[in-house]
Amino acid sequence: MAIGGDAVTQTLRWRQDPGTEVVQCHTFKLSNDARIDVRRIQFAFGTGSHHVHVYQSDESEPDGVTDCAGGLAWPRWRLLVGSQIEPLDWTLPDGFTFPVGPRQQLLIQVHWLNLTPAAIDESVQVAFYPARQPGTPVGVMFGVNKQIAILPGQAVTLHQECPLPVGASVVAMMGHFHALGRRFKADVRPLGDAGGQVVYAGTDEATLQFKSFVPLLPIPEGNQITFDCEYFNFRDVAAAWGPDTQRDEHCNLVTYYAPAVEAASFCIQEFPSTSALDSASGVATQSSTEASR
Question: Cα separation of 147 and 269, whole Å?
Fold first, then answer.
């Protein structure tokens, strides 16, 4: 994937020990002196990515690299765009853009696995290509279901509902879970209905690919996005919500839509009763202040 031209770019580098899994947050300001309206986004990286997420904030943060396995502070950090195990080269449909402010404060969260017996030097390069003029703004709805407490030998399905603003159309989607996931499904359905039109699906981590909708997928008034994560715990230990791909699980759906009401919003399903869930399952849970891993 060639990166260059008129793009605003940033390259992240790190060294990683053998047989390790890291979740790092790289904070920096973009180099653009004026606002840009992004028409194309590229992520270039090699094998080892579990995910690469780009977040933006209106609050300044010192440049640097920190461990952020404990999560991010939502909604201070708002998701701009993300990729998983495959590099991304996404050109938005004609007339649509992501607005990015001058010297925009960004955070790139890198979740990386080194499954080799040797240390590695890794890098991720991100490029934002500006449009000639502003387009209809694209926003992000980040759906997160934290109600994960799966006992050994147990099959579980999580269900989540995420309404989009009236008049919205879906531009792209990407689902996410870990190794216990057996089926992921997102559909569009009227409020209160038990089923709807399936618009995104996968059967394991590798099949949860970034999906762009051409033409855009309109959401009829009175309808919403729903998504289900189905799991089977084949391990001999319980699984909770968390970042460790060998122990924990996630159930996420990122929906890019237009026109945007706000740059990014969240649709988070918390545990209804953490203490009750703990006593019933023996699974340690995370608080609502923790965020995407």
Answer: 7
